[in-house]
Amino acid sequence: MARKIFVGARIFDGERFHDEKALILADGRVEAIVARNGLPDGETVTLEGGVLSAGFIDAQVNGGGGRMLNDEPSVASMEMIAGGHRPYGTTSLLPTLITDTSEASAAAIEAAKAAVKGDRGVAGLHLEGPHLAPARKGAHLAELMRPVEDRDVKTFIRAREAIGTLLVTIAAEQVTVAQVRELAEAGVTVSIGHSDCSSEAAEERFDAGASGVTHLFNAMSQMGHRAPGLVGAAIDHPSVWCGIIADGHHVDPKALRTALRAKRGEGKLFFVTDAMSLVGSEKDSFTLNGRTVRRERGGFCSKLVLSDGTLAGSDVDMISTIRYGVTYLDLTLAEALRMATLYPARFLRFADRGHLSPGARADLVHLTDTLAVSATWLSGEAA
């Protein structure tokens, strides 16, 4: 049995920190966290302080490393995107196809089947559209949006069976309660988003099995004291997970702090980047569905906008969201790390990711004392 032993850093196992301990890996998986005396034989990796954690998990990544998935829904694109985010600590992600043609969706599904088997950080697929509400289109193309049909349900179920993990973002207005129930019972992760629905409509779909809300606050009906909307339903429902974009542009920190305090259900908010191709790239613009998106520098991080000023995804990476959480959202480092590891793993039902319990994948990130990424590992191998 090939063992690798990590020493010299605080170890965060997904729940708590371990000081003056060693992390032992065996054949690409976690074996144990033990005292540093009497260690077994194996290759020793000595870290210079900082924190050793499970690698970050991002459920919503449109692009990175200079490539958008929509530009070319292929295995090469997915692996390029995963590679573009790895220097920022993300070891598992769902490449995300935003609203596009049926042909693009089919290509993304086929690519994901192969990319997941390659085991280089692509852990599934996220289809964000085309079943969204034109009234809350954001940067998506409204003319491509349409209701879910029975053939779509069958396609999603077959894709989930072949890929393993399929997340679909659907507006409540575009999917029936029965369709949500059928998808959820077949293992598809259904998230409500880009929706102008009432809180009652959202709750009906949550109760039918929709388990998530896509980028809370953004592109959805807001919370009023007599009309709670999707935001109110999401915060109030105890079993619903919510992804949040913490970049200083998408949501005011006061709103995020309020949601963190108010959300029913412990640990139900988690970080997503909603990143576009410019993460990991020096370019200042790219094309999205024939429209130019430009990078505007300033603030906590740059923001990405269309010509009319509409936000078009984010320019943030996962380690930056952790720093943002600690700095602006009153989060402890432990909770910020959970929001990038343990919580998204639970939302996506990844039993062996997002923590360092015995048997877990040895996908790791080492952070310096200033919360910069110094190294990552996939299944125990430097990546």
UniProtKB/TrEMBL annotation:
<keyword id="KW-0119">Carbohydrate metabolism</keyword>
<dbReference type="InterPro" id="IPR032466">
    <property type="entry name" value="Metal_Hydrolase"/>
</dbReference>
<dbReference type="InterPro" id="IPR011059">
    <property type="entry name" value="Metal-dep_hydrolase_composite"/>
</dbReference>
<dbReference type="InterPro" id="IPR003764">
    <property type="entry name" value="GlcNAc_6-P_deAcase"/>
</dbReference>
<dbReference type="GO" id="GO:0006046">
    <property type="term" value="P:N-acetylglucosamine catabolic process"/>
</dbReference>
<feature type="binding site">
    <location>
        <position position="128"/>
    </location>
    <ligand>
        <name>Zn(2+)</name>
    </ligand>
</feature>
<dbReference type="Pfam" id="PF01979">
    <property type="entry name" value="Amidohydro_1"/>
</dbReference>
<dbReference type="InterPro" id="IPR006680">
    <property type="entry name" value="Amidohydro-rel"/>
</dbReference>
<feature type="binding site">
    <location>
        <position position="226"/>
    </location>
    <ligand>
        <name>substrate</name>
    </ligand>
</feature>
<feature type="binding site">
    <location>
        <begin position="311"/>
        <end position="313"/>
    </location>
    <ligand>
        <name>substrate</name>
    </ligand>
</feature>
<keyword id="KW-0378">Hydrolase</keyword>
<feature type="domain" description="Amidohydrolase-related">
    <location>
        <begin position="52"/>
        <end position="381"/>
    </location>
</feature>
<feature type="binding site">
    <location>
        <position position="215"/>
    </location>
    <ligand>
        <name>Zn(2+)</name>
    </ligand>
</feature>
<feature type="binding site">
    <location>
        <position position="139"/>
    </location>
    <ligand>
        <name>substrate</name>
    </ligand>
</feature>
<feature type="binding site">
    <location>
        <position position="194"/>
    </location>
    <ligand>
        <name>Zn(2+)</name>
    </ligand>
</feature>
<feature type="binding site">
    <location>
        <begin position="218"/>
        <end position="219"/>
    </location>
    <ligand>
        <name>substrate</name>
    </ligand>
</feature>
<keyword id="KW-0479">Metal-binding</keyword>
<dbReference type="GO" id="GO:0008448">
    <property type="term" value="F:N-acetylglucosamine-6-phosphate deacetylase activity"/>
</dbReference>
<feature type="active site" description="Proton donor/acceptor">
    <location>
        <position position="274"/>
    </location>
</feature>
<protein>
    <submittedName>
        <fullName>N-acetylglucosamine-6-phosphate deacetylase</fullName>
    </submittedName>
</protein>
<feature type="binding site">
    <location>
        <position position="250"/>
    </location>
    <ligand>
        <name>substrate</name>
    </ligand>
</feature>
<comment type="similarity">
    <text>Belongs to the metallo-dependent hydrolases superfamily. NagA family.</text>
</comment>
<dbReference type="GO" id="GO:0046872">
    <property type="term" value="F:metal ion binding"/>
</dbReference>
